[in-house]
Specification:
By secondary structure, this protein is mainly α. Helices cover 74% and strands 0% of the residues. α1 runs parallel beside α5 and α6 runs antiparallel to α8. The longest helix has 28 residues.
Length: 170
C-alpha cells in the first residue's frame, strides 16, 4: 500500500522523462555539458517541486491526508510512506543521467551501476526478515544510490575535453 502512495512521484518522473529525456540525449550527443546540466537541474527541480509538497501532504497519518481515507493500510507501518516517496524521487533523479549516457552512446556504462545496485538490493533482501516492510524501499534506495553515483561518474567522462580524455577511450 505504501508503494501505491509513492508511485505518483515516479509517474511524474516518467512524464518528465518523456519531455526532457530526448533533450538530455541530444545534449550528450552534442557533448554540450552546459545544456545537459541545465536539463538535469531543471528535471530534478521540477521533480522536487512536486515530490516535497506531495510527501508533506501524504507522507504521514494526519487529519488532512487525503490518501489516508483511500488506502489506510499504507500507514500501518510508521515511516514507510515517506521512505517510499524518497525512493521513488531518487528513482526519478537518475533519469537524466541515464538518458545522457544513452545519448552519448555509452550504454555499456550503465552496466556496472546496475550490477552494483542489484547486488545491494539482494543484500537488503537478505535481511528482509529483520527490517520487514522497509526492505523494499531500502533496497530501492540502495539500488538508486548506486545508479546515481555510477551514472554521474560515467557522465562526467562524456564531457571531458579531448586533452583530458581517458587514454583507454572510456
Amino acid at each position: 500500500a505504501a508503494r501505491v502512495i509513492g508511485r505518483p512521484v515516479l509517474v511524474i518522473a516518467m512524464g518528465l522523462e518523456a519531455v526532457l529525456g530526448p533533450r538530455s540525449v541530444e545534449a550528450a550527443l552534442d557533448r554540450d555539458r552546459t545544456r545537459a546540466r541545465h536539463i538535469s537541474t531543471g528535471f530534478v527541480a521540477i521533480l522536487a517541486g512536486a515530490a516535497v509538497p506531495y510527501m508533506l501532504l501524504v507522507g504521514w497519518d494526519w487529519a488532512w491526508n487525503p490518501a489516508l481515507a483511500l488506502i489506510p493500510t499504507a500507514y500501518v507501518v510508521a515511516g514507510l510512506v515517506p521512505l517510499q516517496v524518497v525512493s521513488e524521487f531518487l528513482g526519478g533523479v537518475v533519469v537524466p543521467y541515464r538518458m545522457e549516457l544513452i545519448g552519448a552512446r555509452k550504454e555499456a556504462a550503465l552496466l556496472a551501476p546496475e550490477a552494483v545496485g542489484a547486488g545491494l538490493q539482494v543484500a537488503v533482501a537478505a535481511v528482509a526478515g529483520t527490517i520487514g516492510a522497509f526492505a523494499r524501499p531500502i533496497g530501492a534506495l540502495a539500488m538508486r544510490s548506486a545508479q546515481l553515483v555510477g551514472y554521474r561518474a560515467a557522465v562526467s567522462r562524456i564531457y571531458r575535453s579531448p586533452d583530458e580524455a581517458d587514454p583507454t577511450g572510456r
